[in-house]
Amino acid sequence: MGAMVTCRRRVLGVSVAAVVLIALLYFNLHQLDFSGLRTFLDESNLDEHPRFGPQHHGQNSSVTNTATSSQPTTTSAPPVQTPSTTPPDKVIVIASTQSDDTSWIGENFPDWQHAIYVVDNQSAPLHTEINKGNEANVYLTYLIANYDNLPSTIVFSHDHRTHHHGSRSPPNIRGSSSTNDIAFDNVATIKALRIPYVQQTGYANLRCIQHPGCPAGLRPLRTPSLFSPMSPQERAMPAAWFELFGNHDVPEVLAAACCAQFAVSRDAVRKRGKAEYERFLWWLLDTPLDDYTSGRIFEFLWHVVFGMGAVHCPDEGVCYREQFGVGV
Ligand SMILES: *[C@@H]1O[C@H](CO)[C@@H](O)[C@H](O)[C@H]1NC(C)=O
Ligand SMILES: *[C@@H]1O[C@H](CO)[C@@H](O)[C@H](O)[C@H]1NC(C)=O
């Protein structure tokens, strides 16, 4: 009986020792795990950098962009030793549809961030909530999603590489070498864009050719019988202006070179609060106006939104020279 008890005690003692040992090991391991995790998290924080995506987007906004970043986050490489992991301080924001070929962006602009939105595919990494309002929807969605984390230069562009409404060198100021020609090509146009000029002016239309749009694209206050059926945005502007800006100061003339492709600086964007861009997007998603009209409302307002006067029609030669360094 006595030997039995001693034996039991011994077994118990060994068991307790084993449990304590296992417990010690367990906590030790976990401590290692946690410290490892902490190091990892610290590195992730250091490594955190501006990316296009919804990370700063309000959870309770009706215009929430549900898209996720289109690029995987790099998890390795201490950022201090590899500054190249910092993303470029400039971004090209593209409004596209799923049938468009946007490969020209990745192929030609490795030194830019890319935010390629697809308006008609909800599975696309970056997309708009609905397909409404043409490119204006994409531009506003990007600004809202990234408002607190914008790179210093932002180019807003359509999906097409070549087109007939962009920038080009007109014959009278074309440089002596044909390599200066940025004819109807968004690659040549964006490559030629002088970033310091964008930083200095805040807004730069990628198109220098004034027609159409300048010198007096819209006259929202003219006699209604003079409104052109080709320009429904002119008739719609006064009400839209009030709904967007909350005042009745719609200018007699609104003008900028056409086509809603432009570059802006972060400073110009942030002269307005994020809530204003949200209001603009709500308006766009809510308006009964068709896309043709609402998209063109914004086409004639971007320069105003980003701080230019109602009529923004810089001389073509000056535009090419200062904005693109062409025809100097
Ligand atoms: C919702 O928006 C309000 C007002 O902007 C803000 O105070 C609040 O923190 C937001 N809530 C969430 C969950 O984002
Ligand atoms: C929509 O986007 C997803 C994700 O990028 C892609 O796999 C799918 O093919 C796209 N759908 C169409 C019809 O292009």
Automatic annotation (TrEMBL):
Pfam families: DUF3431. InterPro entries: DUF3431. Residues 48-89 are annotated as: Disordered. Keywords: Membrane, Transmembrane, Transmembrane helix. Residues 63-88 have a biased composition (Low complexity). It comes from the Eukaryota. The chain crosses the membrane at residues 12-29. This is Uncharacterized protein. It comes from Lophiostoma macrostomum CBS 122681.
